[in-house]
Structures are given as structure tokens and as C-alpha cells.
Predict the structure.
Amino acid sequence: MAAAAWGRRLPRAWLRSCGPHRPRAPRAAGAPPVTRPSLCCRSAGPGRGRHYRAALCVEPKQPLAVEEVGPRPVRPHEVRVDVHFCGVNFADILVCRGQYQEKPQLPFTPGMEFSGIVLETGTDVSTVKKGDRVIGVSGFNGMAEECIIDQKTLWQIPEGVSLREAATLPVSYGTALLALEHRACTQPGETVLVTAAAGATGLAVIDVATNILQAKVIAAVGSDEKCQLVMQKGAQSVVNYSQGGLKEAVRKLVGSVGVNVVIDTVGGDVFLEALRSLAWEGRIVVVGFAGGTIASVPANLLLLKNVSAMGLYWSRYKEQNFPIFSRTLSSALQYCQQGRIQPHIGAVFKLEKVNDAFLHVIQRKSTGKVLISLK
């Protein structure tokens, strides 16, 4: 359902099999690379170091270009990172279509989360040093071989956690931890229903709810193959909502009591059925609208069972409550190092295949996290 909704909203250019480069005139031998400004390389001053490749959104709703861009000097509080992996999220797709809450100036480089190695630090940087392995949360500029970022939004990767594994953590596990712990206040033994459970965020919710919070998870997915995966990942029960209504399926599992917590990333009718599946004083957390439809909340349902409906805009915590934001990422890294969580990587694409990676996410061709490899 969600995949079909996304497919209907895509321009034909993005549904065609297309290469990563926009047509342009050939460069003469020995001529310098074409330089475009982007969020990770815009500067009034002279650049330093080598040119590097970046994915660029030059025009909304069109395939991304992969071009060489010029660097800029780091400011005193900034860090230059050699990017190894960057996560692909629905937010990246939305911002490239001009449909996200934030609208960067064109051209820009998407990519909210990445892992890599510190290349250079500004004069005032004290949190990391050259050679450190880090994850970063960037404002849509991570899909590039290099990224300049404020030291505040970098976290060191502990020993035993690979760069590839670390790149899966910020958005998916940051969202799961904030949704379950901070927003829903999930308690041990409570029942958690998660929709789109085989996606990157859904699997992270299963992982955190089961292995960190000791909750019981009902995973809602859209195929038999995904049913098998979420059970392997720790869900106690599974619902295939392509085979019938979610509310009735949940009722068969838990009776009329309902579930304590819902983490919903789909929206539309799935959200409404999940809302109706809540127990007395249950909590539903709206994380996204992957199904393409934003539902209206019937206020009478909130009243009848004293339930709470709340939202989670993950990246907004970076500006509004940074201590909590930072603590969730530190916790995710610690849990990963301890082996208490097991991130699931569905597919990895090279940078020149970034448009294929976007289609892979949109069309739900894989489960778990999709990554762009810059190496």
C-alpha cells in the first residue's frame, strides 16, 4: 500500500531507469572540475584540498546529479569528515521533491546521517581530532565524499562498531528511542504495535522495544516474507495487513484489551485502525506518513479510552532539546557496542547509483536500512 502510494506520486523521470549524471557539455582536457555550490561546500572564501563527488538536487522532483564540487575552509567550530556511509531516509526523498518541512536552497546535497573519519578540525574544536571515527547528523548534506559539520553534531564511534553499522543508527534508532522512551514512556511488559515494521525505523523499534525495554511487540507488515523477518528480529506476534484489517487482526491477538503503545510510520487508514487498537490510557506516536496520506484524529476516540496521540519530529530535538537528542545517539552507540541491538542493513549502493537507492526505498524493495557507500 505504502509503496504504491509513493509510486503514484513520483515523476516519470524518477521511475525510468536513469543514470546518476545530468547531461552536460564535456570538459576540455586539463580543465578544472565544474563547481556547484551545495550545503557542504558553499563559501565566499577560497577552497582548500581536493575536489570531491557529491549527490546534488539541482531541480525538485528530478533525478539527482553526481558531480565534483569544490571544498571550502572549515570554520573554527567545524570539522571536515571523510564520509564512508550515508543513510537513505524518506525525508531525503521528500526534501528532493520539495515536500519536506525544511526546504534547502537549490542546489543542495541530501543526506541526514553519515559515518566517516575526521580529516580536519577547526581551531576551536575540542570534541574530536583527526583520525577519529564518527557519526554525524547533518542538515541534508551527507551524500558527499566529504562533509563539513559543526562539532556539536558529531559522536565518536566506539570500538567494535563498524562505520557501516554506525551509519544506520542516528535516524532509525534515534527515532525509536525517542518514540518509545521519551514520548510513549514504554514500560517493561507493555505491548507495542509498530506499523511498517520491516522498514528501517520499524525494525529499530522492534529491536529497542524487545531488547532494551523488555516490551512485547506486535509487528504489522505487508507481506509473508516480511512476517518471517520481523519474527526473526524479535517480534512476539505479527500481522499482515495486506490480508485484512489491522484492528481485527490485533484484536485476535490481544482481545478487547488492546495494545499499550503504537509507533506508526504509515499514516492514513493504518493509523486510524492502530488508534482504535489502543488499550485504556494507551499512547500512539506519529512518526511519519510513508503511506502518503495524513489522517485526521477523531477526538472522540481519545476521550473514550483516555488515550494520547502525539507526534515525533526527530530532527527537531536537535534544536529544541539537544541534551535528549544527544543522549539517544550516545545510547544507540553504546547499545550497539554492547551487542544489545542488531541493526539490519537491507542494501548498500555506490554514490553513482543514488537514484537507484531512492527508488529502492520508495518501492519497498528491501527491508531495513538502505545505505550509500562513498568508498
